[in-house]
Design a protein that fits this description.
Rossmann fold; six-stranded mixed β-sheet; 598 residues; Pyruvate-ferredoxin Oxidoreductase, domain 3; alpha/beta
């Protein structure tokens, strides 16, 4: 049989709470240790235990990280989804299953490989059999795919750090799984893992943990949070890293952590920290942003710096709490009631999660406003490869803060909300400095911070706020542009679509469609985005939501003469974006008669 090397997708169907995540991560990390470009997608339920969960592993020498178009190897362990898992796979799929479940695998057009996983696990340790059973499919896969034992052991050791008994117990189960596969299966299944040169500096990390490290290196002083999937691991990562990298010389804490009673309180604490001159942050998801809305408006109008990370899940309402989407973009950009506009940083890689983690604080203080970090479940809660982070080399940007009487005297006609430099950004003093009174108002106010309902005063204040945020446009992260020779078609996208765009591009290229791409990394969008639109004949804007939210923002702000060339391709079903879905929608939107090769 012809062997397909490092180009396959594994779908592992288990039940939440059975310990399968450890087994799945061992498979992922073992292939990563062999230098194979690999990605993992955890599709888990929104309960504690018992509901179905799937883990998708894709190996791709081409570096594709989106879920594959089809499953090549299906693992079935969960009786609740057993029949549908078996039924859904295409002909020719390799099905590896637990024989002890006693359910049929009636697919004559597939290759079915069974193993009594539960029985074998009970023979090792009856109390832990439910957990250990998963390690048998790890061993079976390792044997048929030719994953080496050294990489398996490295992955097991990483998963069970310092727990020698757990390491040896799981290695025993994996070896028994290998032995069973060798003795009972035809191990020439048509797919093979082949080692590649691995950069020793690379490692896997979740986007939320990368953002957490960025926040810590950005000088976070106060973290307030209220648990909500999928943002909780960002806060938990900050909490776990603080004792290791942010202790004071005397052993004391350098960052306060408060688990608030609700999202409103968490936002209010960030507001208080910013008013006091600290670097405060909270993290949440769409429902939390909705609850924080009134405080978010107060940030904007009173001009207090702060940071909120929104890790998107699928809405509206409770929606699909453990699925991914880019459904909060428009809400974050113009959050709260009335006329508002916020800086939104949109990472597309774990490296950018780290970078934007610290830059968010600089932007918040420089522009005296709330800054959103915009992530999603796919980027935030799955593991991605990095060669390490580029740590901030410049000093923190604390913005226009007056700290001495001499500095205050140097400003003619100082007023808390007076624009003396023409950039829309006023100067501020901090409590405890003994300087001018700290006047921050969420009601109408003049340049001195005095209450006012004068129409002209209100109009002038709102125009200055617009000028301030608009002035940030070209100081925010520049878009990533990949130009082709042809200027016919340009694609604009953002965020975690970065992990699918290369495959989309290759699919389009295979049909003779050449495209340039532009990844927006911040709102308000950089002037280079407008230039990109003007230079191409037709523009496609990709969104992982139903309504084309970035498309709507661009149409609202772009010059009217550019609007006719812009088209929306938006799709959301809660899953990470699949390349074929978007490639086919792009072709249809362009009105071309092309067919993406299977």
């Amino acid at each position: 049989m012809t062997q397909i090397v490092n180009d396959f997708t594994i779908n592992i169907a288990t039940a939440n709470g059975t310990g399968s995540q450890s087994a799945n991560l061992i498979l992922l990390h073992s292939m990563f240790e062999m230098g194979v470009p690999v990605s993992g997608k955890n599709l888990f339920p929104s309960n504690i235990s018992g509901l179905p969960t799937w883990f998708i592993i894709r190996a791709s020498d081409a570096g594709y990280q989106a879920p594959g178009d089809k499953t090549n190897i299906q693992i079935v362990m969960n009786k609740d989804t057993w029949l549908s898992d078996v039924e859904k796979v295409e002909a020719g799929t390799i099905i590896i299953y637990n024989e002890d479940v006693k359910l049929p695998v009636e697919r004559d057009d597939c290759v079915a490989l069974g193993m009594p996983m539960t029985k074998k696990a009970r023979a090792i340790n009856p109390k832990l059999a439910r957990m250990i059973a998963n390690m048998y499919y790890v061993g079976g896969l390792a044997e048929v795919l030719n994953i080496d034992n050294e990489s398996i052991r490295a992955a097991v050791s990483q998963q069970f750090k310092g727990k020698e008994k757990a390491i040896e117990l799981n290695m025993q189960a994996i070896q028994e799984g290998r032995d069973h596969a060798q003795e009972n299966w035809n191990c020439d299944i048509g797919y093979l893992v082949e080692a590649r040169n691995k950069d020793p500096d690379t490692f896997l990390i979740e986007g939320n943990e990368a953002a957490a490290l960025g926040c810590i290196y950005g000088g976070i002083n106060m973290l307030s949070w209220y648990p909500i999937t999928p943002s909780s691991s960002l806060a938990e990562s900050i909490i776990s890293w603080i004792p290791r990298i942010r202790q004071a010389e005397d052993g004391g804490a350098t960052c306060a952590v408060v688990q608030a009673e609700d999202e409103l309180a968490a936002a209010g604490m960030v507001l208080g920290a910013g008013w006091a001159g600290g670097r405060g942050m909270t993290c949440t998801s769409g429902p939390g942003i909705s609850l924080m809305s009134e405080f978010i408006g107060l940030f904007y109008f009173s001009e207090v710096p702060g940071v909120i990370w929104d890790i998107n899940r699928t809405g509206p309402s409770t929606g699909l709490p453990t699925r991914t989407q880019q459904g909060d973009l428009a809400m974050c950009y113009e959050a709260s009631h009335g006329d508002t506009q916020f800086i939104v940083l949109i990472p597309g890689t774990v490296d950018e999660c780290f970078e934007f983690g610290w830059r968010a604080f600089d932007y918040a203080e420089r522009f005296q406003t709330l800054v959103f970090g915009f992530g999603d479940l796919d980027l935030g809660m799955n593991r991605w490869s990095t060669k390490g982070f580029e740590y901030p080399s410049e000093d923190m940007d604390r913005g226009k803060v007056i700290r001495t009487q001499e500095e205050l005297d140097a400003i003619e006609n100082f007023g808390r909300y007076r624009d003396v430099d023409g950039d829309g950004i006023p100067y501020r003093t901090l409590p405890g400095s003994g300087l001018a009174p700290m006047l921050y108002r969420g009601t109408g106010h003049d340049e001195d911070g005095i209450y006012s309902e004068d129409p002209e005063v209100y109009h002038a204040a709102m125009q200055r706020l617009r000028k301030k945020i608009d002035g940030a446009r070209d100081l925010l992260p520049v878009p990533i542009i990949r130009e082709e020779k042809s200027k016919e078609i340009g694609i604009i996208y953002y965020g975690s679509m970065e992990n699918t765009i290369v495959e989309i591009d290759d699919m389009l290229e295979s049909t003779g469609i050449s495209v340039s791409t532009c990844r927006v990394r911040a709102l308000p969008y950089h002037s280079d985005v407008e230039k990109f639109v003007s230079e191409h004949e037709r523009i496609i804007v990709l969104d992982i939501n139903r309504d084309g939210q970035l498309f709507g923002i661009l149409r609202k702000e772009m010059p009217v003469e550019l609007l006719t060339k812009m088209h929306s391709v938006a799709f959301s079903d809660g899953l990470p974006p699949r390349a074929r879905v978007y490639a086919e929608m792009i072709i249809e939107t362009l009105g071309l008669k092309k067919e993406v090769a299977v």
